[in-house]
Structure formats: structure tokens, C-alpha cells
Automatic annotation (TrEMBL):
Taxonomic classification: Bacteria, Bacillati, Actinomycetota, Actinomycetes, Propionibacteriales
Top-level taxon in the UniProt lineage: Bacteria
Keyword terms of this UniProt record: 4Fe-4S, Electron transport, Iron, Iron-sulfur, Metal-binding, Repeat, Transport
Organism: Nocardioides szechwanensis
Residues annotated as domain Lactate utilization protein B C-terminal: 396-487
UniProt record, GO biological process: lactate metabolic process
Annotated ranges, domain LUD: 74-299
Protein name: L-lactate dehydrogenase complex protein LldF
């Protein structure tokens, strides 16, 4: 069974460990740099890119505003097309539905299209407990699965691995999961892809049941859409007898026509391509063509919780392109594992708390995993204002600790500041003390800041020590404004 994110430490601890891995940082910097450059080139070709972003956001917002109606329409269209629709409130229900379908057909394995939502619900682990092996067929997902690893990127789950590491994983693990890698395997990307193709081919040809997600679900026609670059999805969606698609309810698009801007935004923002090499669509069952039994599991798992949040619901526009990860300076240095979820990076920092709620230390740390630089909003093809949602979620985390028996150091500091600033005499006393501290720290500070001021050294205390060990805190001025005003008679001398 592959590892899961359960039990991961809070982001600061996980990020500190990731920052110490120089190979990881090199892999991330190279990969995200390449993807950023490809995206920039194809986006620059579109004269009305900002108008296209607005159109994509409008489509998603329209779907979310009347989500209940569109879901009912989707169910009716899918049922009319011969599909069986299931509703799942949470991960446990969704996993149970998929397992029931697989066991009804007496299989001990299924093949899978790359799917974030099935990772979100822990489907592979749940099927393993039922004696059913779930084989990932996306190249990057295969690397992660064979390496008993965890995905670290939405689009490229194995972005933290280089080709030499992938070669070692294939040589060591492929034989135990099926067709072994050739003994003379090299780390040439084409050769590695060829080994994966041969390894997966036998699984495609014998599989009776496949599992997929969907990039979009069109309510008007009951059509599910999967876009991909390798063709493994097309194999899973056409060869097996039975197809089970697990779809988050936010993936609904009202009409076929409204799919247009989304299919122009997604490939440019994700893979840096004008269009995806494979765009597969299906609407239930077609006699004699493709799977003859189709199940669609419509999953909530916290999405209605996010929908109820006036500020946070915009995160449900997300089309899983990963553009925000590729421009994020925090993600580039820590990688995806530090976020403790299948949804890493800026979108993960807001999506996880919105889906799960606050109160868990690991989840509560995610809204702070950002410098609020705004690059994620600029890159997002559907204009999710991630910095706005991050600040909103930070307020929720703070509100959740207001009644703590032992207040946090930050809360104590804020109360002390409020006490000082609410009275002129108290503020004057604080200014005198800070002026004395400024004269001392200014003389013995560790660095000179722009303007000639000195930076304070490391300040003792649990929170202050950690904060000032990585930042230059300006020493307080030796003379306060109040003292200067008094000395100069209001600046007249």
C-alpha cells in the first residue's frame, strides 16, 4: 500500500525539512522554470487573454450560483445515456461505491486515469483493503506509485524526482508490479517512457474495470470530459468493460458551449500547450463502443462547505491547471509534500481548509504558507483571488483560537499593543522605552539597512527568536516622533 498524507506535520516543520534537501530544490527550480517558460510563450499568443480569463471565471461562477439545478440536470442526462449515477457525501461513501462495483464484477485489480479526486478520497488505499489493486497509468503517477512515494504537484506528481531517480525506481520496482524494466534501461526520457508503456500495456489489455475522474461534467448533455497528454486516459476510458468516474460536484459546466473558454484556458495554463493531445468525452453507454457499464459518483466531501463561504467559494472555480504552483516562490523552494495534501501549493493552501474546515494544526498552518505576493492570482486562468482567500482563512484560524485557555504569544502581543495604543500616556511611556532600546540595538545591531539604520539582533523568546533568526528587524529609532516634535517645537527649529 502506498503512503498517505495522514499524520504529516504542520507546514513550517515540513517546509524546514524540505529546504534542507538541495537535490529537491534543484529538481523543483528546473521543472517549474521550464513549465513557466512554456506557459508564458503560449499565453502571449492570445491577444485577449484577460478577456478569456474573465469568461472562464464567469462560466464557473454561473455553475456554482445554481449548482443544485445543474447537478440534477447532469444526473438526468447521464441516466438517459445509460449511466448509473451515485451520490457520495464523503470519501468513505465514494470509496465504498467504487469497491462495490469492482467486487460485483469479481476483479482484483482496476486501472486508473490520473485523478486528483480519487487521491483526495484515498481510493487506492481503500481498494487495497478490499483486496483490489489500483494501478496508476499516468507516467508520473506510476513513478510515484512504484516508488511508494507521495504526489507533490497537481500536473506533474513526480516533479520532485529527476530522471536518474526514476530509472532506479523502474529497475527496482517494476518487476514486482508486472512486466519488469529492461536490464539495460537508461535514464533517457524516451527510454523511460518506453519502459512504462510496455509495463502498462499488459494492464490495459487485461483490465475489466477502470476508474477515472473528470476535468468537466456538462449538465446539458451529460458529458464527462478528460484532457491528458499521454493517451493512457484514452486507453482506460475505452478498453475496459466497466468504467467508474468519480467527479467532484464543482466540475459541472452548465452547457456544451460554455466548455469553450475552459478548453482554451486549461492546456495553456497547465502543460503550456495550445490544446491537449487527448480530449476524451463520453455520455453514458454507447452499445458496442467503449465500456458497456458506466457509473458516475458525484462527490461532495466538503465542497458544499466551501460553497457556503462567501469569500472562499471562488476556490471551487479551480480547473486543476497548477499554474499557481509553478509561479509560487514558496512552492518552488519547499515542493508539494510540505503541504500535507494531494492539493499542494497556493490552491492547496486554500482548498484544504475550505474542504476540511479549521481546527486541525496541519490544516490551520496552510493559509500561512504564502508570502501573499499575488503571483498566483495573476497566473490563475479563472481568476481565483488566492491572496484574498488566504487572508480570509487566516482570520478564521485566529478566530478559532480566541477562546483558548492559554493564549498564543501573538495574541498576547496584540493585546499588549492595543493596551498601549489606546492611551496617550501609555504610548508615550512605551516610546521612551523603545527609544532606549533603539539606541542600544542601533549600536550593536547585526546589519545596516537602507537609510543607514541598524537591524536588531536575534530577540529572545519562542516566537520572536524564530522570527528574527530569518529576518532583519529594524531597531526602534533612538528618538520618537513625539520627542522630536517637542524638541523642535513642531519642526519650526
Amino acid at each position: 500500500m502506498s503512503r498517505t498524507f495522514v499524520g504529516m506535520p504542520a507546514f513550517p516543520a515540513a517546509a524546514r525539512a524540505a529546504l534542507a534537501d538541495t537535490q529537491l530544490r534543484h529538481n523543483l527550480a528546473h521543472a517549474t522554470g521550464v513549465i513557466r517558460a512554456k506557459r508564458a510563450a503560449v499565453v502571449a499568443e492570445v491577444e485577449n487573454w484577460e478577456e478569456l480569463r474573465l469568461a472562464g471565471a464567469a462560466v464557473k461562477d454561473r455553475a456554482l450560483r445554481d449548482l443544485g439545478t445543474h447537478l440534477v440536470d447532469l444526473e438526468a442526462a447521464l441516466t438517459a445515456g445509460g449511466a448509473t449515477v451515485h451520490w457520495a457525501r464523503d470519501a468513505a461513501e465514494a470509496c465504498a461505491i467504487v469497491a462495490t462495483v469492482a467486487k460485483a464484477h469479481g476483479v482484483d485489480e482496476v486501472v486508473k486515469v490520473k485523478s486528483m479526486v480519487t487521491q483526495e478520497i484515498g481510493l487506492n488505499e481503500a481498494l487495497a483493503e478490499e483486496g483490489i489493486a489500483a494501478w496508476e497509468t499516468d507516467l508520473a503517477e506510476l513513478i510515484v506509485q512504484l516508488g511508494d512515494d507521495l504526489p507533490s504537484h497537481i500536473l506533474v506528481p513526480a516533479i520532485h524526482r529527476n530522471r536518474a531517480e526514476i530509472r532506479e525506481i523502474f529497475l527496482r520496482e517494476m518487476g514486482g508490479a508486472g512486466r519488469p524494466a529492461p536490464a539495460d534501461l537508461t535514464d533517457d526520457p524516451a527510454v523511460l517512457a518506453g519502459a512504462a508503456r510496455e509495463h502498462l500495456r499488459e494492464k490495459f489489455l487485461r483490465a475489466k474495470v477502470a476508474v477515472s475522474g473528470a476535468n468537466f461534467a456538462i449538465a446539458e448533455t451529460g458529458t464527462l470530459v478528460v484532457v491528458e497528454s499521454e493517451g493512457n486516459g484514452r486507453m482506460c476510458l475505452t478498453l475496459p468493460e466497466v468504467l467508474v468516474s468519480v467527479v467532484g460536484i464543482e466540475k459541472v459546466v452548465p452547457t456544451w458551449a460554455e466548455l469553450d473558454p475552459l478548453l482554451r484556458l486549461l492546456p495553456r495554463s497547465s502543460t503550456g500547450e495550445r490544446m491537449n493531445p487527448y480530449t476524451s468525452t463520453w455520455s453514458g453507454v454507447t452499445p458496442g463502443d467503449g465500456p458497456q457499464e458506466v457509473h458516475v459518483v458525484l462527490l461532495d466531501n466538503g465542497r458544499t462547505r466551501a460553497l457556503a463561504d462567501d469569500v472562499g467559494r471562488q476556490a471551487l472555480r479551480c480547473i486543476r491547471c497548477s499554474a499557481c504552483l509553478n509561479v509560487c516562490p514558496v512552492y518552488e523552494r519547499t515542493g508539494g509534500h510540505a503541504y500535507g495534501s494531494v492539493y499542494p501549493g497556493p490552491i492547496g493552501a486554500i482548498l484544504n481548509p475550505l474542504l476540511k474546515g479549521t481546527g486541525d494544526p496541519q490544516t490551520d498552518s496552510l493559509p500561512y504558507a504564502s508570502s501573499l505576493c499575488g503571483a498566483c492570482f495573476e497566473a490563475c486562468p479563472v481568476r481565483i483571488d488566492i491572496p484574498e482567500v488566504l487572508v480570509h482563512l487566516r482570520s478564521k484560524v485566529v478566530d478559532g483560537h480566541r477562546d483558548d485557555t492559554v493564549p498564543k504569544a501573538e495574541a498576547v502581543a496584540m493585546k499588549a499593543a492595543a493596551y498601549a495604543f489606546s492611551d496617550a500616556r501609555r504610548l508615550a511611556a512605551v516610546e521612551k522605552v523603545s527609544g532606549l532600546a533603539g539606541r542600544v540595538l542601533g549600536r550593536f545591531g547585526r546589519a545596516t539597512l537602507p537609510g543607514g539604520r541598524r537591524a536588531a539582533g536575534r530577540i529572545p523568546g519562542p516566537g520572536a527568536s524564530a522570527w528574527t533568526s530569518a529576518r532583519d528587524l529594524p531597531a526602534p529609532p533612538a528618538e520618537s516622533f513625539r520627542a522630536w516634535w517637542k524638541r523642535t517645537d513642531g519642526g519650526r527649529r
